[in-house]
Amino acid sequence: YMFHEEIYGTVQKLLAERLQGRTFSLLDLGCGDASYIARALAGTTIRQYTGFDLSDTAIAIAERNLGPLNCGLRLVQTDFLAGLIGNRERYDVIFTGFALHHLHHEDKQRFFQCCAHALNKDGVLIVVDTFLRDGETAMEYFKAHSAYIRDNWHDYTEPELEALLRHITTQDIPESIDVHRAMAMHAGFRTLSMGSAHLWYQCFYCEP
Prior knowledge:
alpha/beta, seven-stranded mixed β-sheet
């Protein structure tokens, strides 16, 4: 329902095009169970995966999902922004999937600033997330997104739908791609390019 297959397929192609078979390290912020990023990384030359997530349950599942990659693996139970702020390592790729929209604007700004410092010179930041569409207000987003879920997410029970909608209306802080582009440029990133877009669910990448 959130076009994971299409978007993470784009991530896989992006990694292949940029890395050209070179070994690389990746930091995954808000990694969750890492099920989709593990598929995107299958067959790559990743040498080190580091993941931050607040859920110990998700971390345990992520360890199993990432095992077949046969790379160095470091999973840390922590708030992903706090982990990023405290990070002292540098990475070839920083990735975050459907986590950034939970941050307030000021914390998003800090996110970009910290990512710029944590990337190697030829590295890339890849963001998969939920964004406001062009000209859309937050209230319009909440109304349209909720209607989309109710009309299309047929595999969910009514209590599950209510939980999802409650999460969206109480936890989502979506902003537009243009706002993210401005924050990225202010943090020192040179470009912000679109990878793929499906309704509110989009992928972009930027370079330090």
